[in-house]
Amino acid sequence: MSIYERLRSELPSLNYYQPATETQIDRVENALNVKLPDWLRDLYLHSNGITASDSSSDYLLALERNHNFPESLLSWNLFLRDEWLSYLPEFKEHCPELRNPGTDMFAREGSRP
Containing domain of residue 72, as a range? Predict the structure, then answer.
């Protein structure tokens, strides 16, 4: 049983959004220079975001911002990298280089089609 199937059976009242496309996943992986684990890729291929039924809590952020998600996996990852590096510059050697390192994190995500 996949993680998605287990979530749907155990937590049927959550909002499960339309699946992500391979193109969306590739775009986020490329921007972050990180390959998503197979289980997470599979989950996104079934649902590009999961929220509480009243939308008060996000359980799985969408890959990229959209009208349902003001924040996303991409925007939070970029934000946290910037935060960590501002306090722990030595972390940079462990952090994958971003594909567009000179671009503002919000503009980078917002410029995607």
Answer: 3-110
Which phi and psi (to 5°) does residue 102 adopt? -90, 0
C-alpha–C-alpha distance, residues 68 and 93, integer Å: 35
Helices (H), 1-113: 3-10, 22-32, 38-46, 73-87, 105-110
Confidence of residue 49 (pLDDT cuts 50, 70, 90): very high
The tens digit of pLDDT for each residue in 51-108 reads: 998 878 999 999 999 888 888 999 998 888 888 878 877 777 766 676 653 333 444 4
Based on the structure, what is the number of domains in the chain?
A: 1
